[in-house]
From TrEMBL:
<dbReference type="Pfam" id="PF00032">
    <property type="entry name" value="Cytochrom_B_C"/>
</dbReference>
<keyword id="KW-0249">Electron transport</keyword>
<keyword id="KW-0813">Transport</keyword>
<keyword id="KW-0408">Iron</keyword>
<feature type="transmembrane region" description="Helical">
    <location>
        <begin position="136"/>
        <end position="154"/>
    </location>
</feature>
<comment type="subunit">
    <text>The main subunits of the menaquinol:cytochrome c complex are a Rieske-type iron-sulfur protein (QcrA), a cytochrome b (QcrB) and a cytochrome c (QcrC).</text>
</comment>
<dbReference type="InterPro" id="IPR027387">
    <property type="entry name" value="Cytb/b6-like_sf"/>
</dbReference>
<keyword id="KW-1133">Transmembrane helix</keyword>
<dbReference type="InterPro" id="IPR051811">
    <property type="entry name" value="Cytochrome_c550/c551-like"/>
</dbReference>
<keyword id="KW-0472">Membrane</keyword>
<comment type="function">
    <text>Component of the menaquinol:cytochrome c reductase complex.</text>
</comment>
<keyword id="KW-0812">Transmembrane</keyword>
<dbReference type="InterPro" id="IPR036150">
    <property type="entry name" value="Cyt_b/b6_C_sf"/>
</dbReference>
<dbReference type="InterPro" id="IPR009056">
    <property type="entry name" value="Cyt_c-like_dom"/>
</dbReference>
<dbReference type="InterPro" id="IPR012049">
    <property type="entry name" value="MenaQ_cyt_c_Rdtase_cyt_b/c-su"/>
</dbReference>
<feature type="domain" description="Cytochrome b/b6 C-terminal region profile">
    <location>
        <begin position="27"/>
        <end position="154"/>
    </location>
</feature>
<dbReference type="Pfam" id="PF13442">
    <property type="entry name" value="Cytochrome_CBB3"/>
</dbReference>
Length: 255
């Protein structure tokens, strides 16, 4: 037997006979239809992203986030407000069909349907067209979603009590009180500090007693007759003791 007898040579179509450099295809024959991913499309994406990034950085420098007082977990009356990009969801939870016993619908089901629609969009609209007018299904739902977000965000902004929000989050300057004073001891004796705090800073059931802008007579009247959540007759001391307490509180009022 001679060497090589009976051998067969098979060509593989996956191996090019002539090697070519990795040059993007020329799409000039199809203007406006498509373009090379690298570098044309990717460069445009980077440029748009850089513009938005610089814009957001400029906004953060020009308008820094406002600070509020230290979070108090015992303050059940505090109403939190989400960031602006969540205001439309915050507003939706105010409606009867998405709040109360239906909170699950507003908090999970409806946002879940919207997020699921985004995930299914490539499978639902598979047409080759890129112009919005040629894609009525995708364009219609996009415009509907955009209009809903804008409307709910606007409703949340115009219906929110911004003055009350400013007051509840205001940083109030407090000072360390004199805990050896007779007025402080009398407040401790009459359980005033249970609600108003050991530094008169207030709590979930009572306001702060610092920076009140009240006269001693007004404070005494509230201590005897009550106001708001404070019932009548809480202070059990004598008039002389009440006078010492009101004078003690007044020294921490606004100057």
């Amino acid at each position: 037997m001679h060497r090589g007898k009976g051998m067969k040579f098979v060509g593989d179509s996956r191996v090019h006979a002539v090697r070519h450099s990795n040059i993007p295809k020329d799409y000039s024959e199809y203007p406006g239809k498509t373009e090379a991913f690298w570098p044309n499309f990717l460069l445009k994406e980077w440029m748009v992203g850089a513009v938005f990034l610089i814009g957001y950085l400029s906004l953060t420098v020009a308008h820094p986030s406002p600070l509020e007082r230290i979070a108090d977990p015992t303050d059940t009356g505090y109403i939190p407000l989400p960031d602006w990009y969540f205001l439309f969801l915050y507003q939706m939870l105010k409606y009867s069909y998405a709040s109360g016993p239906y909170t699950t619908i507003g908090a999970f089901i409806m946002p879940g349907i919207a997020a699921g629609g985004l995930l299914l969009a490539p499978f639902i609209d598979r047409g080759p067209e890129r112009r919005p007018i040629k894609r009525p299904f995708a364009t219609g739902f996009m415009l509907l979603a955009l209009a809903s977000i804008i409307f709910l965000t606007w409703e949340s902004v115009v219906n929110h009590d911004w003055e009350a929000a400013k007051k509840q989050g205001a940083i109030v300057k407090t000072v360390a009180v004199d805990k050896e004073a007779e007025g402080y001891q009398l407040m401790q004796k009459n359980t005033c500090l249970t609600c108003h705090g050991d530094n008169l800073q207030g709590g979930a059931a009572a306001p702060t007693l610092q920076n009140l802008s009240l006269t001693p007579e007004e404070i005494a009247k509230i201590a005897r007759n009550g106001r708001g959540a404070m019932p009548k007759g809480v202070f059990k001391g004598t008039d002389e003791e009440l006078k010492k307490v009101t004078e003690y509180i007044t020294q921490y009022n606004k100057k």
